[in-house]
Specification:
Number of helices: 12
Strand content: 25-35%
CATH architecture of the domain at 13-301: Distorted Sandwich
CATH superfamily of the domain at 13-301: alpha-galactosidase from lactobacil brevis
Helix content: 10-25%
Distance between the termini: 59 Å
Low-confidence stretches: 1-20
Radius of gyration: 27 Å
Structural class: alpha+beta
């Protein structure tokens, strides 16, 4: 790989009186600054990261001592954690990186600053890169590591970036979980020692822990007050986040590819590019950091981040593998009658020699099962057109089954340790295809390409990935490059996605990976959304979607109305509550409509119509989390506010059910104090309206006091569950 050409310039750089040899480098967004100390011939250090600096502040900080190395390397005076560790061909394990030069380039919406570091002994270079956006408060940091020698160098550690964080009352918020219980929020103070968050799945990386964190600098995290640093690693593969707290004044935060069992041999003339670490700073609490990530994600990362998402019905929980032509049309007719815009046929539609009737066979055999679909996909597309909706389809292109024609023809295509039997996954037969192999890349691209070539009317692809790499080994990579497997797998996946997006730029694609396994910013440039979890239980979804919203916007979070009793938890939750939870994300349905009553269908029809009204606010607005379910105060609440602050949507859900309980009144956020807002309740089921219905309040009042909400619904058949969705519109 060739290095990018850059123009050396002093634009955007803050220089000391001593000139370029002792320069400071200031990287800024509209409201944040990162200040680097970059003396030529000396070590690159970070002086400051936080609220944007004024000129006087820059001058005052010129001679300050650094907080710590910006990219510490192993081997020379390196007692703490390091970002980079290598072994030269002669066995030398040390690096001593010094600043060689600084360059910057300007683009329409961003600027890029590169500090080139060179080892003092070997022809080994590291470009420490920063991209600062001019319209959102995010700085992306990454490195480009180049071996300009003739002999290979082995990379044993290769973080994307390092950030020192001043010690004090620093707390870390991060996400963890498991299948059907993803994105649970954990918050803890940083103490002495090491905190490590890592992933070794190989295929997906957000099922358990997440590659994103927030640091609250003023003690226990608060949603709407306090200084917060947010960090999100933009990588879909194995990662490692480290916080090293030793005997100096800082916590040292490192983020990058997980180097365990992934030593990388860098050939002479080769450049290794690490994934970006996105950084943001907010003095408006955790929600403020979330708003920055959401704006940046919609504008620069998420596929079609400017496009409103369709309301869909997915067939999975409705019929599971029981696909048939008549049943699919029935579901299309039902979702169309309720105002939906898209129907997605899930797993179970394919297989010839081995029909896909369960999860034990057929992955890789992407031909229509004519027993189930005698009119084929052509017939489904015709039915969708007849009902005035779009059509989507499920695939799992990275996988195969031992019981499949694909595996019979290409047993050498799977991930498998040399000399050992493959470890098999879901259904006892599932296998992972080796995307380090270019032939496999062509095949995976061809799965979608063939569908879209034959059926260009397909509007949406649900792309699943239901297995981890459970045995380390590539039948394609040579023996001395087996440690490259995890990295090459994701390079291969990215190349496939790039080809697909180049050929099908308008196609909507969902990243599903046993639920929320691919909720990360490394994957989302190629996907429109992700499936938050296979668990559709509304109460549990409040907790999972709350955590997910820390880093990802509502338009990326697929949230579906499902059946009661719920298929995962067996919990019986009223339809109104299920609707109100689903409407806080990208609204969809995961249900068999023919099992619904006419009254339930009518409630969904009204809800879908009302969601279309609020869709721009929810999907493109600014989030304000108000009352956390993790505080266990009996309720949870958040709201979305349009950028113009003329519209807002307020969500409130009761999460605990006790007789004679007392719940907090929830002040709103994000409104304009001097604007007047008219209140209208959506999805109302009560026999009489709320006392606030149709009334007008000032933004100042709503943000100071909120509105009093009844703890229960006034209905003929009472339930313990209660929820409210309020739509606020500006009035003159």
């Amino acid at each position: 790989m060739n290095l990018k050409k850059r123009t050396k310039t002093l634009a955007g750089l803050c220089l000391l009186a001593g000139g370029l040899a002792a320069q400071n480098v200031c990287v800024s967004t509209p409201r944040t600054s990162l200040l680097l100390k970059a003396p030529v011939g000396g070590e690159l250090e970070i002086l400051y990261y936080g609220q944007k600096l004024a000129d006087a502040d820059l001058a005052a900080l010129e001679t300050d001592g650094g907080m710590g190395a910006a990219y510490p390397a192993y081997g020379m005076n390196s007692l703490g954690e390091t970002a980079l560790a290598v072994q030269q061909a002669d066995g030398n394990l040390t690096l001593q990186l010094v600043v060689e030069d600084v360059s910057s380039t300007e683009a329409e919406n961003s600027s890029e600053t590169v500090v080139r570091l060179k080892d003092t002994l070997y022809p080994f270079y590291v470009d420490v890169c920063y991209r600062a956006y001019k319209d959102v408060d995010v700085i992306e940091a990454w490195t480009e590591i180049t071996n300009e020698g003739k002999k290979p160098v082995t990379l044993h550690q290769f973080a994307s970036a390092c950030l020192p964080i001043r010690r004090g009352q620093v707390w870390m918020s991060h996400l963890h979980g498991s299948w059907a219980n993803e994105a649970r929020l954990a918050q803890e103070p940083l103490t002495a020692g090491m905190k490590v968050i890592a992933n070794r799945d190989g295929v997906r990386n957000a099922q358990t822990d997440h590659a994103e964190v927030m640091f609250s600098l003023d003690g226990r995290p608060r949603e709407n007050e306090g200084r917060v640093i947010g960090a999100a690693l933009c990588y879909g593969g194995n990662y490692k986040l480290r916080v090293d707290t030793r005997d100096d004044e800082c916590h040292h935060f490192f983020a990058g590819i997980n180097e365990e069992n992934s030593a990388y041999v860098l050939e002479g003339g080769e450049t290794f590019v690490t994934p970006e670490l996105a950084l943001t700073y907010s003095n408006e609490g955790l929600s403020g950091a979330s708003r920055s990530f959401h704006r940046w994600g919609r504008a620069y990362k998420l596929a079609h981040g400017e496009r409103l998402r369709k309301i869909l019905l997915n067939s999975w929980e409705g019929v599971y593998f029981g696909i048939n032509q008549e049943g699919m049309e029935q579901m299309m007719a039902d979702i169309a009658s309720m105002g939906g815009e898209l129907f997605v046929m899930d797993d179970g539609w394919f297989g010839d020699k081995y029909p896909r009737d369960n999860d034990t066979s057929s992955l890789g055999d992407w031909v229509v099962d004519k027993r189930k679909l005698p009119r084929g996909i052509e017939g489904l597309l015709a039915d969708a057109k007849k009902h005035g909706i779009k059509f989507g389809i499920w695939v799992e292109p990275e996988m195969t089954n031992r019981i499949s024609e694909l595996y019979e023809q290409h047993p050498d295509w799977i991930v498998k340790a040399p000399g050992r039997d493959p470890v098999q996954g879901r259904g006892g037969t599932q296998l992972v295809l080796d995307l380090s192999n270019p032939d496999v890349q062509d095949y995976v691209f061809g799965v979608v390409d063939e569908l879209m070539t034959k059926y260009p009317e397909i509007d949406y692809i649900k792309w699943d990935a239901n297995m981890s790499i459970l045995n380390h080994g590539s039948q394609y990579l040579p023996a001395d490059r087996q440690s490259h497997l995890f990295i090459e797998y994701h390079r291969g996946l990215e190349q496939v996605c790039q080809r697909l997006r180049a050929k099908y730029p308008d196609l909507a694609i969902q990243a599903c990976a046993s639920g929320g396994g691919r909720a990360n910013w490394g994957i989302l440039p190629y996907f429109d959304e992700f499936w938050v979890s296979d668990n559709t239980d509304a109460l549990q979804r409040i907790y999972m979607q709350w955590g997910t919203s820390y880093f990802f916007p509502a338009m990326a979070m697929a949230s579906h109305i499902s059946a009661a009793p719920n298929h995962q938890t067996s919990r019986v939750v009223p339809l109104k509550y299920r609707i109100d939870v689903a409407m806080s994300g990208r609204l969809g349905m995961e249900i068999q409509p023919k099992h619904m009553t006419d009254a339930e269908k009518e409630l969904c029809r009204k809800a879908i119509a009302e969601y279309k009204t609020i869709r721009p606010v929810v999907q493109l607005g600014d989030i304000y989390r108000l009352l956390s379910p993790y505080d266990h105060l009996g309720a949870a609440s958040l709201m979305y506010v349009a950028p113009e602050k003329d519209k807002a949507v307020f969500f409130w859900w009761k999460t605990e059910h006790f007789y004679n309980q007392h719940l907090p009144r929830v002040p709103m956020r994000g409104l304009q104090a001097d604007k007047l807002y008219k209140v209208h309740e959506l999805n109302r089921i009560d026999t009489q309206p709320l006392p606030c219905e149709g009334k007008v309040f000032s933004g100042a009042f709503l943000m100071a006091n909120g509105l009093e909400l009844p703890y229960n619904h006034r209905v003929n058949t009472p339930s313990a569950y209660a929820s409210r969705v309020l739509y606020l519109e500006e009035v003159e």
